[in-house]
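Changelog-adjacent note: as of this version, every example in the card shows the full chain rather than a window. The one below runs 103 residues end to end.
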Amino acid sequence: MLLSLTGIAVAQPAPKADAPAACAADKADLEKRIAEAQAKGRMLLRRELAAQLAALEAGCKPLDAHQSRTARIARLEKEVTALRAELAEAEGQLRALKEAVGR
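Full-length structure tokens:
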């Protein structure tokens, strides 16, 4: 049981401020894992990874204010898209349940 839980809630150590390349690599890895979780419908894992990404971004030194804002906008756009897809799926399930009850 312990082994199955270790992959879910792995704490990420705070990155060093002087390692922007490491931050970028970690960020890219988390974004990839978020996309994979989204594609597999693993919303809880996606949310956990998004929280890890937010913590990573908070600890990473941004290259400059413009790039930081641009990256944040892109991240938020991805998040909104993912949430819209999740909402559409939930609405579809709700419609199906209502139709099944109405029969």
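Structural remarks: The chain is about 80% helix and 0% strand.
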